[in-house]
């Protein structure tokens, strides 16, 4: 077995060890399909034996391009974003990209810092799931950076770029219409922050469904909160303090709905019987939660795939027209309503 040489192993050393040209070894580290599997295996074995590590940053500098993509999400603990991440990875890996992940925890300052860090690492483009409240300064910096960017899940109204999302308005209208048809006319809206474009679109659907049924929206039944289980629990407590508590609740997302139903059980209330609960996203846990949650399918994996495709197209041609992809929602009725 060959001894590892001291210092950083070069690609030329790998090529010599494998008995191929440096050009062939270079094609292999860049995942070129033009090299035979046998040659690829031989070179990869030499890389492993010599301890070769591909210097991607240096390669990016030489080619003036990058195979690394930045993905910024708000909360990795939210299973919605886990599914979105799966879609992004699936598509970008097909195209030979590596994903650099960052989490903002819905903080504009953290989002700004992550964007700066990704640019310092010379990412080829960014998929951004924006925070609820984007500062004008952050928006202006993104414009000035002139880097290929696709926004997903939430739109930034003043930022002109490609976007992928779900028809929130239609999805919520379907959910509220379902509750109204079940006989509910005091429906609370729990969770989310009104600064967010996703909240505004959901609320438009909430209002539309009421208006079409000849009902008025009771603003005192709108309770904002963090889009977490804890946020849902606190929002439910606030709604139950009302002189006329709601008979049904629409929750900003499934995590809020899980918190609501857990809190209901703690209070001796039965979700789906004492109060109907509807969520939004249809994460995997929704079908197995107790009771199974009625919710709107938001297709996070498909959003991830589409966002990755748009970014790949943008990187290839940054002059093409902006695109908006809005997916159609679907209502899944289960025992919680």
Automatic annotation (TrEMBL):
InterPro entries: HTH_LacI, Lambda_DNA-bd_dom_sf, Peripla_BP/Lac1_sug-bd_dom, Peripla_BP_I. Residues 9-63 form the HTH lacI-type domain. It comes from the Bacteria. PROSITE patterns: HTH_LACI_2. Keywords: DNA-binding, Repressor, Transcription, Transcription regulation. The keyword ATP-binding does not apply. GO terms for molecular function: DNA-binding transcription factor activity; transcription cis-regulatory region binding. The keyword Transcription applies. This is LacI family transcriptional regulator. It comes from Domibacillus antri.
